[in-house]
Design brief:
CATH superfamily: 5'-nuclease
CATH architecture: 3-Layer(aba) Sandwich
Strand content: 5-15%
Number of strands: 6
CATH topology: Rossmann fold
Distance between the termini: 7 Å
Shape: globular
CATH class: Alpha Beta
Number of helices: 7
Order of helices and strands: EHHEHHEHHEEEH
Largest sheet: 6 strands, mixed
Number of domains: 1
Structural class: alpha/beta
Radius of gyration: 14 Å
Helix content: 55-70%
């Protein structure tokens, strides 16, 4: 089973927000084998933007993004993904950026998208949205952690 990470997970893991969520994000990333995680390039761009808006220097934000990029498989946004994402946005009233991340997760064969930004349990094209901060943890997240 593979999972895509959304921006908020990387931002929390970078330590600029809530300490509880930071600890949870770091533990989650450490518990999942790196070959089971996908980072949509959209997520890395959004993460850079959030980190710099929250006061991190551009240089440190760049280093942070490059570390994430080196640690995990990065999935590009393609024209086909954009086409899927616009349809997803129209059909389900999602913001285009969230739709691109979800469409990228589907395109790369992920079964999970770990995020707190979309409806927990929403499923599209074989990808289930899971909030990794929800208690109790979603059964698919537990299966990934035990995989």
């Amino acid at each position: 089973m593979k999972a895509a990470l959304d921006t908020n997970i990387l931002v929390y893991a970078s330590g600029l927000d809530d300490e509880h969520r930071q600890a949870r994000a770091i533990a989650l990333i450490a518990a999942i084998p790196p070959d089971k995680l996908i980072l949509p390039v959209q997520v890395l761009g959004e993460c850079y933007g959030v980190l710099t808006r929250k006061g991190m220097s551009r240089q440190l934000a760049q280093q942070t993004i490059l570390r994430w990029q080196d640690a995990f498989e990065v999935a590009d946004t393609t024209a086909a993904i954009l086409r899927q994402a616009t349809g997803l946005s129209v059909d389900h009233q999602l913001r285009i950026w969230d739709a691109i991340v979800l469409a990228t997760a589907a395109d790369t064969g992920c079964q999970l998208l770990l995020t707190e930004d979309l409806q927990d349990g929403f499923t599209w094209a074989g990808v289930t949205v899971v909030n990794p901060f929800a208690v109790p943890s979603h059964n698919l997240l537990m299966a990934l952690l035990l995989d």
